[in-house]
Amino acid sequence: MAERLDLKNLKGTWMIIKDKVYDVSKFSDHPGGFEVLADCKGKDSTTDYIDANHPDYVEEDMKKYYIGDVPKIHQDEVAKHKTENDAWLAIHGKVYDISKFTDHPGGAEILLENSGKNATVAFDTIDHSKEAKKDLYKYYIGEYIPDPNSESLPSTNYFIYIPLLALIIGIILNSFYFN
Ligand code: HEM
Ligand code: HEM
């Protein structure tokens, strides 16, 4: 099995595109310029890559720079990291190592409380700013695989069916009225 990539300690100009990791340190003749690649360093750059409208043949070129897949991290592994010096948490399907995030504006305590688990709901409750969401990539270490036994899928919001229900009732009442 290929060695698992340690995203947090990866050196060089690397980036994630479509769940794959590329090291473009030596791609100084990138036709779009090296600067744009440097700006994507250490981030999930899938959107930037797509926005640049690369032609299909580039996918073949990319193989030269491929160094591995984004690690998949199971909940049981996340659960092992919930101490002050070793804290991981999951937000929206991604795992973050926040051990070194000592200056969280919301305080260190709340981060520690949410470590070792899926903190998506807690994170969203605060209505974090765009900047805060962008900052997440600094701590990104892998894709989150939830435990199917302990985590249910997001529950269906049945309120979305209310307009549909109202429409159906309207149609039924209408047909009675006109008959
Ligand atoms: C391993 C990753 C990448 C590879 C192999 C790659 C390769 C290429 C190639 C071959 C072209 C020329 C395309 C053509 O023939 O029109 C190109 C253009 C370009 N790339 Fe990338 N690219 C990569 C990542 C990125 C990323 C992350 C960005 C971020 C914004 C980016 C931005 C651009 C831009 C702006 C152009 C110029 C488009 C133009 O002038 O029309 N590339 N890239
Ligand atoms: C790596 C994950 C996180 C990052 C990067 C992050 C980042 C930030 C940032 C930049 C702020 C300042 C306000 C803003 O820009 O929105 C903030 C505030 C805050 N965060 Fe987080 N946060 C993270 C996780 C969490 C989690 C899991 C909780 C749990 C509830 C939390 C609770 C708070 C609270 C309570 C505040 C203060 C809000 C206020 O003063 O109005 N954060 N966070």
Automatic annotation (TrEMBL):
GO cellular component: membrane
GO MF term list: heme binding; metal ion binding
Keyword presence, Transcription: no
Annotated organism of origin: Stentor coeruleus
Domain Cytochrome b5 heme-binding: start-end pairs: 1-71, 70-145
One of the Pfam families matching this protein, by short name: Cyt-b5
Keywords, ordered alphabetically: Heme, Iron, Membrane, Metal-binding, Transmembrane, Transmembrane helix
InterPro entries in the record: Cyt_B5-like_heme/steroid-bd (IPR001199), Cyt_B5-like_heme/steroid_sf (IPR036400), Cytochrome_b5 (IPR050668)
Name of the molecule in the record: Cytochrome b5 heme-binding domain-containing protein
Listed PROSITE patterns: CYTOCHROME_B5_2
Keyword Iron attributed: yes
Highest taxon of the lineage: Eukaryota
Classification of source organism: Eukaryota, Sar, Alveolata, Ciliophora, Postciliodesmatophora
